[in-house]
Write a structure and sequence with these properties.
The chain is α/β, with parallel strands linked by helices. It contains ten helices and 26 strands.
Length: 414
Amino acid sequence: MASDRAIIIGGGHAGAQLCASLRQEGWVGEILIIGDEPALPYHRPPLSKTYLSGKSSLADLLIRPPEFYEKQDITIRHARVVAIDRQARSVTLSDGEEIGYAKLALCLGARPRRLPIAGAELAGVHYLRDASDIEGIRGGLTDTRRVVIIGAGYIGLETAASLRTLGGTSVTVLESAERVLQRVTAPEVSEFYARVHSEEGVELRTGVAVAAIEGDDCVRGVRLADGELLEADLVIIGIGVQPNTELAEAAGLTVDNGIVIDGSGLTSDPDIVAAGDCASYFLPRYDRHLRLESVPNAVEHAKVAAATMCGKPKTISALPWFWSDQYELKLQIAGLNDGYDDVVLRGDPKSGRSFACFYFKNGEMIAADCVNRPKEFMFSRRALNDRVPIDRSLLADPESSLTELLKAPSTDRS
């Protein structure tokens, strides 16, 4: 019955967590997940890593086994929702079927940002967001000798690392900014990753503009703005994502760089929540409205949204954190470094493959990038959560005790 039905649109990390949390919070009615992929919810970060390299199957990546959904009486429909009728409290599928709801959760995720240039639709040009994208890339690797990746953000660099690990192909990464990861890291971290990728055989080209992708029946090369042609048998575009907000906009919900939610996950409609990459919210810790693209963020949103749907409102409060795996490197990121005015390094990013970069703003630590430094990562999460004043001179000393730094706050906030 619609009067006790919760509908979740989207079968990604947020949707998978939200259905589980609904049962944990006491939802006794029907739970229906509607997702447009022909698979159960699966982990997406491994797509550009173990799945691309063939080390894992889609079954290996399932967030929960099929038995979980059966045991929890959760129904999954592989279909596409084309409209939301808030007044009737129903959703319409692409085949015209209308399904009523008591509560609705929008876990719509995001999609790759398209590159608006000639040739971007040629065969052999790929984006990377879901399993079908990876299958298309893997299918094209058999006869591929030269891969060009457009975009040196995390997705581009992770893909480059996976391809080089597989071997057999040359990899060139193109970036319009002056350094890799420019939008999200300090220059010291960018230089570290540029060095590692160069050591692994990746050709990095920064500060370049792409004019067109060329070919006849399939891609043959990438034309730069200065006229240079880079030969390519396969092109992968990774220039960011944009949130899937069209359904929400058409339904009249408030949208601003994502579906706007309050601290409890509610949209501008009291019967509709949103969670994950598609949702935008105010984070008091950083005094700003933002939209985050990360698995931990999606999971946290989903737990809070589920409680709200069950009449037990909680507040989104977890510190943002992220990770990236490239070669044998595990980068763990705590907090957000927007607006930083100083960095402290622990370890040497110019040699070796292990260090941490701590970001400060007005004397307070606001974020950290930790490469193969799990202790520094755990320290950072604790220090950021508790807003512990940190002695930067001791932090920079790799021999100093991180535990003692937490126990003995310094007055050094200069």
